[in-house]
Design brief:
With 206 residues, the protein is mostly helical.
Amino acid sequence: MGIGSFALQKIIEWAQAKDMDWVGSGFGVSPELLRFWIKNGFYPVHITPQRNEVSGEHTLVVIKPLKPNVYSRIEEINSNFMRRLIEYLCDELSDLEIETAIGLLRCLMKDIPMPKPEFGYIEKKRIKKYFHGMSLYEYVSDIIRPLVRYYYSRKDRVELNEEEEKLVVGKCLQLRPWKEFGNNFKVYKTLVKAIQKIWKWCYGEN
């Protein structure tokens, strides 16, 4: 246990001795700080859409429940936060560091109430052409984006590797330009492979 985690544990023990329901913190979020708080059992419940004028970072609020009956309430708050986060990533949080966005998306405590996207014959035919290299992302993004949003609304989901997830979050949720990822054939193929995994996880077909 590092010095920071040790000091934090002492604060948690003090709060428990005072019979408090939860402890929380707010900070300018970065991948490193996010990992620290998650490692110590805290869950994100709010992020400011704008960056702080002084630090240049988005402020994140995290909470750790100290009582079993509080946990379910924080689950609900976290679920609502994650629903908003998924939507914010294409607009207010489109400039959030991709690594931070991924870290937050992995903090979902319970499934978000969100219906599975339903696609008709034409849409399925279009996505199959994309999977077989006969179409471009831009021609099927209307199918991919709701699919990806649904994927991140679920706790149990198929695992993507690091490069796949960076592309899925950066391109499909944050709508970043191809040039940020290399703009080459390997990048396109990596995204196709990731979307195929998600499609099969969701619908059980290739």
